[in-house]
Structure formats: structure tokens, C-alpha cells
Amino acid sequence: MTFIANPKRYHEIPYNRCGNSGIKLPAISFGLWNNFGGEDTLENQRRMLMKAFDLGITHFDLANNYGPPPGAAEKNFGRILNEDFSQYRDEMIISTKAGFRMWDGPYGDWGSRKYLISSLDQSLQRMNLDYVDIFYHHRPDPETPLEETMAALDQTVRQGKALYVGISNYNAEQTKQAIDILKAQGTPFIIHQAAYSMLDRTIENGLTDVLAEHGIGCIAYVPLAQGLLTNKYLNGIPRDSRAAKEFIPFLNERDVSSDKLQKITALNHIARERGQSLAQMALVWVLQEKSVVSALIGASQVSQIEENVKALNNTTFTQAELDAINDILK
Asked: Which residues 6+ apart lie within 8 Å of 257 measured at CB?
């Protein structure tokens, strides 16, 4: 049956301008880092994508190595896109990345022109797309000259394979250098994807100032700290949680420390007083940062997407709430 999107979807969510660009991103974007691999059911993936779009989420974020196995998320997304969403392609922002290990040998990792151009070609093939809206370099390369990496991003735009480019996981100084190179090339550099949450505020140490000064938007990934900033871990580690999955290297049992659990419990108290879940409060908290235009969520079921979008019903904080949160996080 042909998917017909909710006609009121653009009334469900605010859209924020991405830096000085012409693009607006939904306050909440949907990432396919987890739960879109070969071990996950296609029908659940389809339900989540449909619900996200019906709620006004227009930005879908991928990378070449998302899975497992690497490439599976792009392949699954491409299948669903072409079977169910083809008529809505021009209403979507689709992004992908390259920069982590994707294939064997010296040309399948980091930031060479060879790797980035080849990877994007493969990504487009997996998704059956002519272009992506945003193509990111996923992490800085300590060996390849930054000029080469940025020139590769520029080339993808000039070839019509990407409309805009971005970077991810660069620190403030690296970002300054990238901005200068891309500006000299005339490349439409609009966005930086950075880890940002109540439990990881590293970007506040200079990066957000650089982005604000140069008109670059920031999209915050892992705003829920891989699920730690939810009610899921208040009573231990559920068997079906990310921390319990062996193949997810970025969150495991040792990350759920007693100190973090104490902070989570205290934050949860503030969230309840605000009439929100902990996850909802954590999402709108990252949007308080001046450069952050969107919070990037993941999900394993439709109900999580619905709960996250409801966070936007209460996006303001009193100064007393912000002070209390800062005291907890010190």
C-alpha cells in the first residue's frame, strides 16, 4: 500500500535555520546509527521512518559504515525510501558520512580524496540516489593534509553528488582550519555534527563559539548519551539495552557508573517537576546551546520517536532549573 504522509506534519515540529545557510532543519532529526542493520527487521525500520516523517522529521542521518554489517543501514534506508517515500524525496534532507573504516586496505578509511569520493559513490549506489543533501567527513585524519580532505568535499558538490558538506568530530582549532579552506574554495559548508549531551559538554570549550562566529550550524549527536539520559538505566541495565549489546563499542556496562547513576537520578527529579521524562528534558536542553539547530535521535521502536517529539512541547527553562542542572553536572 502506498504511503501517504500526514498532511499536518509541518505543524508538528519547529524548524531552525542551519547557520547562515538557506537550509532549515527540524529541531529533532532521526539517525540510523543503530537498529537499521541486517539483524533488525525491515518492517520495524519502515514503521519508524514513516512515523518520524509523519511527525515532521525531515532529516535522516546515515553513514557509510552504519549497520551491522557496514553499509546495511544505507541499503535498508534506500529500499524503504524507494518503495515508500520516493514521492517525498524533495521534502527530505538525507545525509551520509565517510571517515571511519569501511573496507580493507589503505583506501577504505580516514580522509583521502580516494576514500571519500569512492565511499560517497558506494553510498549513493546503496541508497539508489543521485545525490545526498549533506556529505560529512566523519572524523579528522591525522595524516592526510586537511586541504586534500576539504578539496574532496568540494569535489562532491561540484560533481552534483552532494548539495552541502559538513564535518564531524573535529575540535575547535581543526574546525577553524576547515572553515578557512572551505570558504576559500567557495564550498557550501553549513554544519558540524558533534557529540553533545548533559554528560558530554566538550563542545562548549570553544567549538560552539567558532561555529557561531562563522555561521555554521551544529547538530548534536548522542544527546541522550546512548540512552543513559533516559529512564532505562535508573534501575540497572536491561537485557535489551545498548549497554547489554556486545557489538556496540560506545556504551557498555562499565559506562553505567554509580556517579552517573546519581546524576541521572537527580536530573530525572527535575524533569518530573517540568512534566517531562528525563529523555525529553535532555533533548530540549541541548537545543538551548546557541549553535545547536537540531538534536539527532535514534530509536528502536515507534513509541520512542513519539516521546522524543513531545519534548518540544516544553522547550524553555527557568534560570533556577538551569542552575540546578549545572550543579548536578559539575
From this structure: none
Which bin fits 263, alpha (ψ -120 to 50), beta or left (φ > 0)? alpha
Q: What is the pLDDT of residue 233?
A: 78
Contact 156, 120 (CB under 8 A): yes
**What is the structure's pLDDT at 258?**
82
Residue with cell 513519539: 306
Look-up: residue for cell 548534536? 220
177 near 146, Cβ under 8 Å?
A: yes
- Can you give the pLDDT at residue 238? 60
Q: How many separate helices (H) and strands (E) can be counted in the chain? A: 10, 10
Beta strands 24-26; 93-98: pairing state: unpaired
> Cβ(233)–Cβ(256) under 8 Å?
yes
What CA–CA distance (Å, rounded) separates 85 from 105? Answer: 36
Phi, psi of 231, rounded to the nearest 5 degrees:
-75, -5
What is the reported pTM? 0.93
For the chain, list residues with pLDDT below 70: 1, 236-255
First CA to last CA across the chain, in angstroms? 52
Whole-number Å distance between alpha carbons of 299 and 80 = 17
For β-strands 162-168 and 28-31, DSSP reports them as unpaired
Question: 76 by DSSP, 3-state: which?
Answer: helix
Q: Which uninterrupted H or E stretch holds 247?
A: none
26 is written with which cell numbers?
527540524
Least Cα distance to 307 among 247, 224, 226 occurs for: 224
What pLDDT was estimated at residue 244? 52
- Round to whole Å and give the CA distance between 89 and 24: 16
Q: Give residue 252's pLDDT.
A: 53
